[in-house]
Structure prediction request, 409 residues.
Amino acid sequence: MMNLVALCALGAERALSNELKKLNLRVHESNHGKVRFSADLPGLYHALMGLRTADRVLLEVARFSAVDFDQLFEGVKSVPWESYLHRGASVVVEKVRSSRSRLSAVTSIQSVAHKALAERLCGAWQVDRLNEDEQSAEVRLYVDKDQVDLLLDLSGEPLFKRGYRTEGGAAPLRETTAASILLLSGWKRKFPLYDPFCGSGTIALEAALYAWNAAPGLGRSFALSRLAIADSHIEQQVRQELRSQVDFNRTIRIYGSDTDGRAVSIAQSNARRSYEIATGAPPLRGIRADRPEEYSGAGGVSIPLPRFRVQRMEEARPSDPEGFIITNPPYGQRLGNLEDAEKTYQAMGRLAEHFSGWKLVVITDHPGFESHFGYAADSMREITNGAIRSYLYTYERLGSKADVHRRGT
Prediction:
């Protein structure tokens, strides 16, 4: 069994831990945007392809104490790096973090670690220096309370890069953050889902992949494949297993709207690519010209995709008496105009009127969202979207407590 670390947004640790448990992987520890777990190689491939909320998966190659650079050097050098890397591979100490430790100079830590790693590999491979022509492996080193964690990256490109989004809107929401919000919201496939500020469609598309039971990493490769511990046969087996679990026969009612026509067009294109990723191939008969939200699959069967349209949020009306609104309204910090963002939050009060009975989940970087929206949330949690500290506001049932929670009355 391998000791592994999955990284996620701060605030999404519970969602990630639950995902790992559903993959029958043992979770050891969860805190500060990290979840430690263990897996064999098939389990690792399941994690890389199947986790929706993880930004990276790292292999823990060593943990040791170091209070000075000599101990750091010896600790790094003692790792059998030649067992993880192919002969002639290049390697870089990509990221170093230190907190509450006597070793605190990040640049010096990085330099000493790389020197120790190079000395070990040069000795094992009997070469004078490491190949620097092509980067094939990345090492991360975290020091906390004089405890060193040496980690080997298995992801390559961050896992939020699913492959379906080639263009983003002005303020893109990470796919993994969108998936975290979705799972934390408690949304189920039987309920309709609507995003009134869909942008390039990330929330709706993550919901579709979840509804189809499609693993989000089916359309991409991983840094693991470049390491000596990889097994292409096992990888192919897991990939085929996950593809066999995709189910397009499930009815989905997933909608998104935006006032930006170009963003809606991008969302529609992203929806088509998400389908292709889930199946591993383009549709047999292409997109229906009369209904761009549907694919014509095998036997001419129409496969519904999330539906996107150009529409103002105030014009939206519910399709059902119950459902979920999950949305990422314009960020003042990211879009540059806090006053405009606050006016948008105020206008969102219409959702409480028109979508009475629906659950509302909002992610924003504005800590005063409730006062502008006009209603107090039933719950709020902090979560990060990339480097941005954000807040997740949940309203369990719009309209049910309007008289009690309405601000300023």
Q: What stands out?
A: The longest helix spans residues 106-125.
